[in-house]
Amino acid sequence: MKNISVVKYSESDIPRMVEIWNEVIEDGIAFPQEEFLTIEEAKEFFAAQDYTAVAKDEEGTVYGLYILHPNNVGRCGHLANTSYAVDSRLRGNGAGRKLVMDSLRMGKECGFRILQFNAVVKTNLPARKIYESLGFNHIGTIPGGFRMKDGHFEDICLYYYEL
Prior knowledge:
This protein has about 160 residues and is α+β, with helices and mostly antiparallel strands. The chain is built from 4 helices and 7 strands, in the order βααβββαβαββ.
């Protein structure tokens, strides 16, 4: 198994990050976005986050990424949200778990008190398994909250983690 570490992204990572991000959008089973990111849009998008990181091996291969940002504003600005994406061909190497663990550390470091997920698709069992094994609290389910790529609706699960 490769030695994968999570580090702050660099501009040279962006083309690979865009490939991975857009793959998740294309799959249509996890991210709410429907429009692909271009390289130029991605530069602005990833820079606008409170923190953006990539999971890389010792050769510099990018396995995945996460973005960390406020979930809300003002009196709820202490709540963070993240999105994770791992290349489908490179899953199963622990990169997803490492991304989530790093986001917990960075969320706290960035001054957030809670990490909240608003829309984890119920059928996304690998992600849910990671969250639950790390101690995230499942606080409810919204029936039919996510429109899948094929047009049918799946439930979404809400989670939070106290940082």
